[in-house]
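Proteins fold reproducibly. Consider a sample protein:
=====
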Amino acid sequence: MPSLDFEREKRVFRDFYDRNRRQLEEARDVFIRLIGDQIRQSDIGEVTKIEGRVKDREECIKKFHRKYQEKLEADEQPYEIRDFISDLIGIRIVCLYEDQIALVSEVLQQNYRLIEVTDKISAVESTEDSFGYKGLHMDLAPDGELLGSGFCLPYEDFRFEVQIRSLIQDAWSVLDHKIKYKKSIPNDLKRRINVLSALFELADREFKEIRNATAALIREATDDPLGEAPVAETAPSRGAGVASEKIINAFNFLRVAGHFFRDFEFEDYKVDGFVQDILRLHPEFTKGELHHCLVDHLKQVREYRDLYLAENADHSFSPYTVIRHCLYLSDPRTFQRILSRVSRERFVAFLAGGRD
């Protein structure tokens, strides 16, 4: 029964909290698992973190006292503390990019009953004299199919708060909580904090733009196939310098290699490392040279690969290994170290017409 007796209501809340602590923790774990599955089944892309906590009992009471008690008692409105703690169960979702926040929000609204939304992104951006972390806060409860299935039925009375942030916003929130005295401070210190906040916001935007630019370059590399003839490009003399757009990089490597190995999935981190291996040996090696190299030598290297695998059935010979052998064959002096000593000696023996 609600009352205006704060001491009584504290006892009631503590009793409720202690009796339900274990079930609150179970509900937290269930909601985290469900949300993770729902996000994975969507086309949102990668999120870096989904974690949760049950708010500390005494922190709940302090929050109620700080935010609600005075007004409720001034209006002579009886209360129960638990009704005002929307984040008793709190879940944080950290996306890689800011534009994923709205997508995550849509997924959650499709699967849970929305009680309230607090858009801290819009709140911060709508004022010139404000700093603080951004993010979208949603108060949710199980609803619809989740309750119908019985999976969430034991937790139907447990609402929970979800905070959705980008990776950069999450980093800023950690620092923001460490900055003391953010309101009654000298203007020069306030300006410095605002500058720092703006740098994080700029980083968020640039991170997203880099993602978009990278995706565009990958589409260009994979959707615009090469012709069968080698790229018309004159190989430069060593040390003469080459236009930077012609030098091999991860994107134009994918365009060339993807043409010759259409059924192979080149993983980004392996491509990055492989291109660096090439450039360490030949800093001005170009996309056209790679294309020429594969056109001229791929057939012979594939013959060697088939022979090698026939004799070594438990070994592998990936497209990266094929390209390494093609590079060596195109310029044995420059690319001597693109192969290990054993691999190089075995390949040289094959070229000489012999066997190991």
